Amino acid sequence: MPDMLRYAGQFVFLAMIMVVIGYFSSQPVYLQIPDGMAQIKLSFSHGGARKVDCRKLTVKELAALPPTKRRPNTCGRERIPVHVQLVLDGQLLYDELLEATGLWNDGPSRTYKKLIVPAGPHVVVARLRDTKRQSGFDYEVSQDVTLEPFQNLAIDFKADAGGFQFR
Length: 167
Hints:
There is one protein chain. The chain is built from two helices and ten strands; from the N terminus they run αββαββββββββ. The longest helix has 25 residues, at 2-26. 14% of the residues are buried. The strands form three sheets. It has a four-stranded mixed β-sheet with strand order 6-1-9-10, with no helix packed on it. Strands 5-4-7-8 form a four-stranded antiparallel β-sheet, with no helix packed on it. It starts with a helix and ends with a strand. It is of the alpha+beta class. The protein has helices at 2-26, 59-64, and strands at 37-46, 55-56, 73-74, 82-88, 91-98, 109-118, 120-129, 139-147, 152-158, 163-166. The protein folds into two domains: 1-30; 33-50 and 80-166, Immunoglobulin-like (Sandwich), CATH 2.60.40. The mean pLDDT is 93. 19% of the residues lie in helices and 41% in strands.
């Protein structure tokens, strides 16, 4: 009989734990995006132009180098920062100067930004400058989008595919 009471007590205790877990798995309701809102995610990794242009080595400079290090050009490693902007319906949402990564600032510039915006029709403009120019942008695209509530719009950048991609 004591074994039966012990088993019954264990059953009741485990049943209470299952009820608590079951309740908290469905309550309270959690929404990552509020009602009537959508999300835009801007994410990319892109290397800007080199700060110092490549230079062709002279015959004399090539002869001075060890045979294993002879190459026709010499290039600096450091890259310039990438300037990126995201505009929604004429309002600037994101404007950032992204520094190059890496120990010698020779890696790509990276960003990952999530923006919560109202659902509905919008005009999204994405701009990027990755060269030494002081004004204007090298890549700019404007796209009309209609965002449904709870929708995620991903914006990526691939220079070899023509620039910004909206998905």
